[in-house]
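#struct-help
A.M.: can someone run this one for me? Single chain, 406 residues.
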Amino acid sequence: MTTPFEHASRPLATDTYLLHGIGDAAEFGGIVNPPVYHASTVTFRNLADMEARGRAIDAADTDVMWYGRKGTPTTFALQNALAHLEGGYRSLLVSSGLAACTSAIMAFVKAGDHILVSDSVYGPTRHFVDTVLARCNISATYYDPCIGAGIGSLFRPNTTLVFTESPGSQTFEIQDIPAIAQAAHARGAVVVMDNTWATPLYFKPFEHGVDVSVQAATKYIVGHSDALMGVITTNQATWRTVREYVFAAGQHAGPDDVYLALRGLRTMAVRLERHQRNGLALAQWLAQRPEVAQVLHPGLPDAPGHALWKRDFTGASGLFSVVLAPGFSDHAFRAFIDHLALFRLGFSWGGFESLVMPFDLRGERTAAPPPAAAAVGQAFRLHVGLEAKEDLIDDLAMAMRQLARQ
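D.P.: on it. Structure tokens below:
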């Protein structure tokens, strides 16, 4: 039989690639999914074999079984699939999404450097910048996520990296990534982007000037709330630098978690379609509610950065935020959250189930205030899962009755 790639007259569509392009069943006796390799030790036939594989590892662009921490066929299958989807050169798996963010930064900085970080960045990434990097004498300036090309005025002679996240954490501002990348590259800085929200299915980072893309594979790639993992994808120019740091830091993803991510990846396209459809339906419904001051979803016409989202993205995931109208007591807000049934209260997102998480941005932003309503009102983030949207709307409506009763 021919392979799907030999038979096709054009490159496979993403949906088809996710089903047929991840691994070659012929390599594993016809088994559809790459098997789980539990391996720490890899043995060699002789010294010449060990030396040859070591040289291949040092070439930095070859998948070679050399030591379990540096990868097995299970690892390589997922890494290669993710690099293909993102349009990057190579990918590496690490232990968590936060590890992907911090490793991508550490690969490019040294004592005395300065970096630029979006003011709407993921909270734990910000904590790492403010604590670990500060102790290493690496300074950071937080920038307004809506700054676009104006970011050029913030560069210093020792600025080496720009860390972007679009849309922004909690408030979902869309950044002008091409303009930021152009300004950074003109000054010799590397651009890193957290692409977890859109995934490579809805945003192609390397087509927009990004040098290194990171994702919390925990979220939409795994998709079932049962594994932690991060992925770092690079272009060819940044590959060796990132690879050297990741290997030196001992970063690694366990084989069973890699298998779960491979399984989740197969259905990510169809899951994201449902997340997007449900998310937009709920965002539009919430925007009409008198209890709501603002819905922060880039797919809505009045959302921050909507025009940039339409220009650069091909879709939206199921994560967005809601700010309540002023006047509700803390007791009423807590009653609303506690009366939700299908939206479970929990950290993380990206799984099949719907989640809610309250947040308060007061005092957390330093470069620019968040969207006006979010600066003063009670706010919560929704991850809209795969349930029927009618049931999710009904769940929110019943919980909102608690706001009027308090």
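A.M.: thanks! Residues 91 and 233 are 4 Å apart (CA to CA).
D.P.: also worth noting: The chain has 15 helices and twelve strands.
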